[in-house]
């Protein structure tokens, strides 16, 4: 703590008032259905005027809105839903190579963009289904090339 900070704290008149916490710089990804250029423009304009927004990227092909800046994800989500009248949700997909079992029930999604699957780590009910049982793991590793004690019949 510097000298100026110490002196300003001594002469601070806001007793009892807590300092406002500054929002963190972050990237917020939102899934919003966009069919045409008008929808794209409407979604972009809904968040461009927000305080703290530094960059807005819209990918209409993937129905994805990316907002970068000092913003709160829940406020961005609420603003997009209110201003556009469209259903909006936080981006539910992750790259398929991040998930252990990308084709497990509850993880694989036909509507996901190419190379993406649903994020199973946020939803505990789905993550239980996505984990392989011990017998399943035992059988798949029995014939694996990485297993030195694997079956050599093949």
Average pLDDT rating: 78
- Compute the CA-based radius of gyration: 24 Å
Approximate helicity band? 25-40%
Cα distance, first to last residue?
68 Å
Order of the strands making up the biggest sheet: 2-3-1-4
Summarize the main sheet.
4 strands, antiparallel
Report the order of strands and helices: HEHEEHEEEHH
Structural class per helix/strand content?
Answer: alpha+beta
Report strand %.
Answer: 15-25%
Overall form: flat
Brief rundown of the structure:
The protein has helices at 3-10, 37-48, 73-84, 124-130, 134-142, and strands at 26-32, 53-59, 64-69, 88-90, 93-95, 116-118. The protein contains 5 helices and 6 strands, in the order αβαββαβββαα.
Structure characterization notes:
- The protein is α+β, with helices and mostly antiparallel strands and 154 residues long.
- The protein is 31% helix and 19% strand.
- The protein has five helices and six strands, in the order αβαββαβββαα.
- The chain has helices at residues 3-10, 37-48, 73-84, 124-130, 134-142, and strands spanning 26-32, 53-59, 64-69, 88-90, 93-95, 116-118.
- The strands form two sheets. A four-stranded antiparallel β-sheet has the order 2-3-1-4, covered by helices on one side. A two-stranded antiparallel ribbon has the order 5-6.
- β2 and β3 form a beta hairpin.
- α2 packs across α3.
- The radius of gyration is 24 Å and the shape is flat.
- The protein starts with a helix and ends in a 12-residue tail after the last helix.
- Residues 124-130 have low confidence and may be disordered.
